[in-house]
């Protein structure tokens, strides 16, 4: 043996054994699909293919409001390569659909109610042919005046057979005659944010031999979508199947049902697989957006700054159809006073139809809009009283055991004061130096037009809250099955992975409970029992809870024979790192040996405690649980140009329990960045109901250069005893809170009221007279 070989052998023998890969709850287990997404092999819907594939295109209305006089499809049908053209006359089943309220037609027939509403759909042998055929459908319109101001909707002619008013909630809490020594008022407007998914909507429909159809979609609520599709197609639900493909990001209801239904109808009509990939313009026009909102507030406080009464009027613009606007209004009214103790509250909330683009579920809906308003009111109150804005918030902070204006007692952990104190005490970032090397620090970015002497720094605060799961009596339930065979565990649950990390969490739960390293999560389709939509932290709580219960049932099946053999209960046995041991050390074996080739499985459900609808006075235990967040924003504002740069956002949040640290941080950072967009750039602009720039050039998403330093100062792990694992949803509340904190910081820098989001440059300009 040579000296070199001897040295190498010695080094190899001396090398320590590789560290075991961490698993279970509380560790940063990497996502199973991370490699596929990084390498570009992840199966998104836009990548799907089938033999004999046809391509679909949809004709959409160019008007916001019009009467449909006639539809002529003759020219489109006669084009070479066209296999089918369908309109409202070709819908065999239910002609209406909708997430919350089924009031939206599959195809417009008599009236067009918003820009981009579907009129007809085409299937052809080439995508260009399909698009040309859709354009060849001749529609004669009688253009009508659109109703685009939600305040006018109350007096306007009905835009829909169900009327213009979708829901009205009058909240009454406390003494209407109560009054404070100090009163501040404000009028606030929130713009229309688009969820702007990374990938536009796409799908594939494949006819089945039994006359049914399979839809391959990036659905986030497959069972609801299946039921809607089956009703539209005039089929039994068992003849319609939805297979969930890779979801390219989701911060809202990912798939527009009005996109799915024409796809399936064309497949059934032609007997061929049909694929539809939306353009970015179609995506903007078709799916729902955040509700534009008008808010009027009046806050009463005593001389010490303690809140006495809050009065508010909240008007949500639902667009043409109801969708989930009633749910959003309940959140807006229920949280209209924020995470503060308010003994008297009188809130009026309305959601109305207009001819604007449709609104619906977007992360933090309802709560985000009111947070921007009530935090602006707190800044006004602090200024009027001459007290520090953070001190004022601390004096009024909500805590566990306090009562919301809905009459519901806060029973979950609510460490609001602790969160605010944490961000307040965190060191402020250093001031930029007035040197050419640091010009990139100016608002406007590299080579910006601003001058250092015009830059003012501001510090502001935001406190936000959201509810988790559905509300007002929603039946929240999920089902999961866990199977174990040959040392491998498989989880079957129809909870869709939308980027929130459910598949990773499910693997961690099974690893923790059964001590099995290799855990697979099966693809989702509607042959599995339903798990509900992927929103408001549902799958962490409800679906994660179902997986945990099923895994514990399998654990009992695994340990019961051993416990019986040794004359002890299963509670005296534990599973750690793949080994089963007893409390006294008498029993020690591996999970694989205990399995002995057997296949174990169990199915379980998780259903949280019930809630109730708000009554006629806006009272009731409407929410299952709540999450809270505090953010301190630091901004630099060029007071001559009105440009704003967010320097830093310091965040503290109550999370219940950290289940996956890396995943949690990523969720918070993504949510905060979305909030930056709401505060500064994102607004889907319309002119008389027509979307002006339905593309990612006209709609300004924040980029990496716009993302500030995000400092997660504190994560409070005070477990919610009614939640599985004690964990809370983490991604919605930073979206709700960060725009309010940024607006507060801009007010601090400029002294301007800043009563509109996104913040327009003119709102941040300080004139000589104002200085």
Automatic annotation (TrEMBL):
It comes from the Bacteria. Residues 39-145 form the Aldehyde oxidase/xanthine dehydrogenase a/b hammerhead domain. InterPro entries: Ald_Oxase/Xan_DH_a/b (IPR000674), Ald_Oxase/Xan_DH_a/b_sf (IPR036856), Ald_Oxase/xanthine_DH-like (IPR016208), AldOxase/xan_DH_MoCoBD1 (IPR008274), AldOxase/xan_DH_MoCoBD2 (IPR046867), AldOxase/xan_DH_Mopterin-bd_sf (IPR037165). SMART domains: Ald_Xan_dh_C. Residues 1-16 have a biased composition (Low complexity). Residues 1-26 are annotated as: Disordered. Gene3D superfamilies: Aldehyde oxidase/xanthine dehydrogenase, a/b hammerhead, Aldehyde oxidase/xanthine dehydrogenase, molybdopterin binding domain. Signal peptide: none annotated. PANTHER family: XANTHINE DEHYDROGENASE, XANTHINE DEHYDROGENASE SUBUNIT D-RELATED. This is Molybdopterin cofactor-binding domain-containing protein.
């Amino acid at each position: 043996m040579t000296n070199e070989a001897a040295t190498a052998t010695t080094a190899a023998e001396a090398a320590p054994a590789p560290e075991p890969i961490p698993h279970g709850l509380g560790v940063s287990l990497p996502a199973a699909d991370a490699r596929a997404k990084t390498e570009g092999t992840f199966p998104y819907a836009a990548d799907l293919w089938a033999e004999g594939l046809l391509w679909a295109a949809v004709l959409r209305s160019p008007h916001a409001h019009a009467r449909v006089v006639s539809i002529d499809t003759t020219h489109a049908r006669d084009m070479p390569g066209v296999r089918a053209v369908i309109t409202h006359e070709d819908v065999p089943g239910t002609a209406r659909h909708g997430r919350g309220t089924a009031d939206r037609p599959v195809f417009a027939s008599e009236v067009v109610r918003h820009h981009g509403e579907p009129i007809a759909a085409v299937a052809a042998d080439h995508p260009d042919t399909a698009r040309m055929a859709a354009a060849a459908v001749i529609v004669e319109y009688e253009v009508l005046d659109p109703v685009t101001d939600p305040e006018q909707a109350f007096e306007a002619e009905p835009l829909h057979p169900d009327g213009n008013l979708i829901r009205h909630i009058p909240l009454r809490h406390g003494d209407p005659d109560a009054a404070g020594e100090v009163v501040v008022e404000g009028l606030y407007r929130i713009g229309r944010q688009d969820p702007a998914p990374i990938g536009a909507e796409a799908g594939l429909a494949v006819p089945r031999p039994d006359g049914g159809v399979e839809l391959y979609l990036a659905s986030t609520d497959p069972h609801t979508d299946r039921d809607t599709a089956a009703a539209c197609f005039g089929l039994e639900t068992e003849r319609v199947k939805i297979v969930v493909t890779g979801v390219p990001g989701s911060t809202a209801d990912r798939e527009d049902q009005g996109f799915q239904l024409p796809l399936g109808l064309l497949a059934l009509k032609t007997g061929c697989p049909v694929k539809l990939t939306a353009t970015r313009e179609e995506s903007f026009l078709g799916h729902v957006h955040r509700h534009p909102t008008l808010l009027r507030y009046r806050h009463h406080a005593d001389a010490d700054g303690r809140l006495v009464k809050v009065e508010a009027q909240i008007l949500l613009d639902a667009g043409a159809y109801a969708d989930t606007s009633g749910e959003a209004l309940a959140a807006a009214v229920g949280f209209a006073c924020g995470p503060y103790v308010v003994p008297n509250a009188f809130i009026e909330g309305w959601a109305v139809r207009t001819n604007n683009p449709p609104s619906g579920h977007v992360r933090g809906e309802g709560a985000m809009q009111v947070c921007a308003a009530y935090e602006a009111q707190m800044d006004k109150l602090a200024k009027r009283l001459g007290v520090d804005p953070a001190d004022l918030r601390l004096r009024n902070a909500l805590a566990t055991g306090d009562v919301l204006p809905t009459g519901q007692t806060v029973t979950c952990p609510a460490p609001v004061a602790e969160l605010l104190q944490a961000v307040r005490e965190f060191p402020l970032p250093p001031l930029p130096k007035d040197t050419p090397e640091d010009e990139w620090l100016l608002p406007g970015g590299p080579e910006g037009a601003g001058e250092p002497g015009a830059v003012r720094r501001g510090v502001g605060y935001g406190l936000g809250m959201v509810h988790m799961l559905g509300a007002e009596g929603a039946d929240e339930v999920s089902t999961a099955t866990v199977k174990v065979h040959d040392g491998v565990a498989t989880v079957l649950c129809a909870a869709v992975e939308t980027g929130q990390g459910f598949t990773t969490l499910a693997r961690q739960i099974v690893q923790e409970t059964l001590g099995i390293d290799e855990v697979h999560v099966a693809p989702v389709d509607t042959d599995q029992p339903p798990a509900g939509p992927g929103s408001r932290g549902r799958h962490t709580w409800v679906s994660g809870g179902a997986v945990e219960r099923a895994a514990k049932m399998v654990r009992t099946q695994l340990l019961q024979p051993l416990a019986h053999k040794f004359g002890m209960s299963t509670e005296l046995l534990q599973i750690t790192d793949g080994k089963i041991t007893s409390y006294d050390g008498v029993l020690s074996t591996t999970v694989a040996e205990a399995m002995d080739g057997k296949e174990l499985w169990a199915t379980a459900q998780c259903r949280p405690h019930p809630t109730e609808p708000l009554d006629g006075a806006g009272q009731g235990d409407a929410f299952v649980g709540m999450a809270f967040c505090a953010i301190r924003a630091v901004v630099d504002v060029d007071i001559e140009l009105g440009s704003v740069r967010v320097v830093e956002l310091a965040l503290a949040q109550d999370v219940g329990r950290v289940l996956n640290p890396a995943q949690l941080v990523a969720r918070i950072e993504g949510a905060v960045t979305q909030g930056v967009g709401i505060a500064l750039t994102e607004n889907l602009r319309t002119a008389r109901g027509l979307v002006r720039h339905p593309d990612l050039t006209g709609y300004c998403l924040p980029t990496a250069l716009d993302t500030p330093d995000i400092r997660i100062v504190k994560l409070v792990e005070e477990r919610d005893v009614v939640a599985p694992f004690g964990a809370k949803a983490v991604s919605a509340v930073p979206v709700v809170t960060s725009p309010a904190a940024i607006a507060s910081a801009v007010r601090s820098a400029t002294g301007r009221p800043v009563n509109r989001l996104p913040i327009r440059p003119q709102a941040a300009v300080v004139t000589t007279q104002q200085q």
